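User: I'm curious whether this sequence folds into something compact or stays loose and floppy. Could you predict its structure so I can see for myself?
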Amino acid sequence: MNCLQNLPRCLVSPLLGFGCIQRDPSPSSLKMLVSPPIKANDPKARLFLLAVSESKSSSEMSGVSKEEEKSDEYSQDMTQAMGAVLTYRHELGMNYNFIRPDLIVGSCLQTPEDVDKLRKIGVKTIFCLQQDPDLEYFGVDIRSIQAYAKKHSDIQHIRCEIRDFDAFDLRMRLPAVVSTLYKAVKRNGGVTYVHCTAGMGRAPAVALTYMFWVQGYKLMEAHKLLMSKRSCFPKLDAIRNATIDILTGLKKKTVTLTLKDKGFSAVEISGLDIGWGQRIPLTLDKGTGFWTLKRELPEGQFEYKYIIDGEWTHNEAEPFIGPNKDGHTNNYTKVKM
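Assistant: Here's the prediction. I'll summarize afterward.
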C-alpha cells in the first residue's frame, strides 16, 4: 500500500511547476542533494553512528565491496546533508531499536525474509518512507518485499514517501504521513516498524512527530526518549515548523528576489524551500535590468544562493549571513505572518 497513491506526487510541497525531482540512484548524483559541504570533524557536529546488524542481506553471499562503497558514499552525503557525522552500513543488514514497546525505528528491509523477522517480534505495520531512487541506489527489490508481506494476514506494508536529506519536504509531508501512520496503528495494532534507508533521519523524525502529536509526549521528552534508544539525527526544526503550519493553516507570502544583471547568460537560485540539490531559474526583465524570482513561502527563515552562469555566489544587495564555520556565505529571507 502507498499512502500517496491517491494524492498529487508533491502532496503539499510548494514546488509549483518544478515537480518533485528525485535522486538518481547513481552514487555521484547524491552529492547534488547537499549544501556546500560542512566540516565533518567539527566537534560540535560530531556524532558517530554505526548500524548494528540484525540480519544478513543476500549480497553478503556474493561479495560486499560494491555495497561497502555505496555505504561509504551514502554515509558521506548523509553527513554533509544532516550536519552530523553519520555512518550507515547497508551490507550489515537491517538494524533497528525499540523506542517504545509498540514502536520501532530502523533501517530498510532488504529481502522478503526481513518481513518474517519483523513478524516474529510482533510487528503488524511496516511503515516505509523511502522513495524509489533510495531503493534503487542499494538495489532493494521493494516489490518482492511488498508481495511477500501481502501473503500474510498479520502484517501490512505501507509506503509514505519523504525525500531523503530534505528538511523542507519532511516539514511539508509530516501531517499527511503521520495521519496515515495513526490510521494504520489504529487499524492494525501491535508493533509498528517505521523505517527509511538508514533509520537515522526521516524515520526517527516521523516516529518523534507521532509521539508528539498523537501519543501525548512533549516534543523534547519524546526526543530524549528517542535518543536514549537509538543514535540518530531527526530534524527538530522541521517538526516544529510542521506543527506551526497546522496551527496557522500553512499560510504563505509572496517573496520577490532580485539580482542586478551584469551581462549574465543564466541565473538560478538554490536553497529556499527546494533544498540545495535543486535549482529555480530567474527571469530577466530587460526593461529594469534585473533578474527576478517570485516565490510563495510559508513562515520561517530560508537561506539561498545564486548560481550565475554555473558559479555559486551570494547577492550583497540582499540580506546575507556568513561566512559560517565552513566558510560559506548565504543570502536569506525571513517570512512572517
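Summary: DSSP finds eight helices and 14 strands in the chain. The two ends are 37 Å apart (CA to CA).
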